[in-house]
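Handout, section B. The chain below has 234 residues.
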Amino acid sequence: MNLAKIITALTIAAGLTLTVTTASAKGKPVGITSKLSNVAVMHKGKVVKIIRNQDNANTVSPAFAKTSRPCPPFCIQPMDLGKGIVTIGELEVIDYADKMTKGDNILLVDSRTPDWVARGTIPGAVNVSWIDLTPKKGATTEGIIKVMTTQFGVKLVEGKDDVDVDEAIAEGDTSKVFDYSKAKTLVMFCNGMWCGQSPASIRALRKFGYPADKIKYYRGGMQDWEILGLSTAK
């Protein structure tokens, strides 16, 4: 066999090998970790599994493919949002969601506006828009009290009313109107490292006196969640 035929034969063989390898790779399982394939959580009263997309050729959705959103408002967010506030990653979010489903005093909070949430959220999350906690954006004292007491596990101190809370918020000290002893640990996220919505919610909560050690910031948000092919829920 001359040199040309040998090269041709090797090229064909290499091509076949590459094809087989690629086809095989498309069928390989995609775990969350090497020992964890999925986690079942409750979402709107139904069991939903957090699992990664099993298509090895899957790519990120167009909504999270942009690299250069205008700043402001889509500016890069810091890792550190304040003393005592812990910034976490996907495995920690999944662990908190699992513990929440099992009854721990935890709440996974999607801080985005409803139009973004409608596209899909992290299973187990509830939507409390950053606007609902931001007075400058129209949040009312009554609305803030409702969120704090009905969703976040905060108690209004006996004998206090909207006027007292309004004055306390204006003064930046709500310790005399809100009881945080049984407040939930909040795991807060939005669209990712370029999104300022969950940071805005966190800063508002800290101004209201919410304990820093009961706030966890998932900076990667939906951007990183989607990049890793993790499942979403409506």
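Note. The chain has two domains: 1-28, 31-227. Compare this with the example in section A.
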